[in-house]
Amino acid sequence: MTVRAPAKVNLHLGVGPRRADGYHEVITALQAVSLYDELTVSTPPGAPGEARGPEEASAAAEGTPAVAATVEIAGEGTAAPGGAGAADDVSVVPTDADNLAVRAALLVAEAAGIRGARIHLALAKGIPVAAGMAGGSADAAAALVACDALWGAGLSAGTLARLAARLGSDVPFPLTGGTALGLGRGERLSPVASAGEYHWVFALADGGLSTPAVYREFDRIDDGRTEPTPADAVLAALTTADPAQLGAALVNDLQAPAIRLRPALGDVLAAGRGHGALGALVSGSGPTCAFLARDAEHGALLAAGLEASGLARAVRRATAPAAGATIVTAPPPSAIPPPAARS
Ligand SMILES: C[C@](O)(CO)[C@H](O)COP(=O)(O)OP(=O)(O)OC[C@H]1O[C@@H](n2ccc(N)nc2=O)[C@H](O)[C@@H]1O
Ligand SMILES: Nc1ncnc2c1ncn2[C@@H]1O[C@H](COP(=O)(O)OP(=O)(O)OP(=O)(O)O)[C@@H](O)[C@H]1O
């Protein structure tokens, strides 16, 4: 069962003061972009099938974890940039129970009353890690959809969205993709009208930025605000299909703190503007920088200019809005192993 889930860019990220629970109230307009992670969930050979009889079910119940998962990662995040021992390196994707896709599988099993499932998760990462593009969140969304389908759990879209919000503020969005307004800590979504197709160029950076660290840096400067800035200008621009209007309306309140933590990002943004980007901003909590191009042709020129500048680790082009988590290959029903024990 293979599911593809998209990265995101925040077209508007208005951040309010820190709440009592440690999160910040935000008003954000999110757009899914055509950079994807692909998650393949399979049942390892020799894994037990369904415990059909009551005796088997109760045997599975005793001390059996809901899910035992192995994880394999390819693509972005495969190698530890900080080398061996860099356990606190935010650019390293965990292969244990901390992996957001494993945590998502566990939530689906619990919600469906499944115990004793064994799965193998193969993640092909096309979304840079700890880059402000919600790669881990995309993997979690993909795992919710894949495990729901693999186990025939039949969870509703609303239930999957609730499970997603428990995993992270950014996780509900890649379930639906497209363009959406996010309120609360960013997890309360409503769809937004977006006309036309937008052409983005992303300058990837070496190493990641920690999202909590960027929010903490935001807190260091108390500008006296009591609520996040509204997204009206971006929402209006999205209805015009005019990239120049959208480019002029882009806002990210985490940009200044991200640049304070990583001053070189200012040079990357300036380089993109120098190549005629209609809009330039740090993506989410960074350090990826996002540039809006006039059209596909301008996107290619902008990407070439950024590559030649030597300021980016890599440059990627994408179109938006992109679709949310989608099953790309499902095994024939006869090849799907029966679910593990259900309580
Ligand atoms: C920067 C964004 O990517 C913009 O969409 C998101 O706000 C981050 O969402 P996320 O990575 O899913 O973050 P979560 O896993 O929910 O939270 C991680 C940490 O980020 C900080 N955090 C996150 C979201 C939010 N609205 N306020 C926060 O202060 C908190 O320190 C929190 O402990
Ligand atoms: N499947 C996963 N893929 C990537 N990172 C993961 C995954 N599971 C857990 N993580 C951890 O999550 C952290 C954030 O990674 P992620 O790529 O989601 O960052 P991000 O794009 O900056 O997130 P956001 O934009 O939601 O703030 C990493 O430090 C990594 O250790």
Task: Briefly say what this structure is.
Catalyzes the phosphorylation of the position 2 hydroxy group of 4-diphosphocytidyl-2C-methyl-D-erythritol. Helix content is 32%, strand content 28%. The chain is an alpha+beta fold.
**What's the overall geometry?**
globular
CATH architecture of the largest domain: 2-Layer Sandwich
Give helix % range.
Answer: 25-40%
Secondary-structure element order, as H and E? EEHEHEEHHHEEEHHHEHHEEHEEE
Contiguous helical run count:
11
What ions, cofactors and ligands are bound? Answer: 4-diphosphocytidyl-2-C-methyl-D-erythritol, adenosine-5'-triphosphate
Record field, number of beta strands: 14
Class from secondary-structure proportions: alpha+beta
Domain unit count: 2
User: Rg, please?
Assistant: 21 Å
Low-pLDDT windows of residues: 49-59
| Span between termini | 24 Å
SS strand fraction: 25-35%
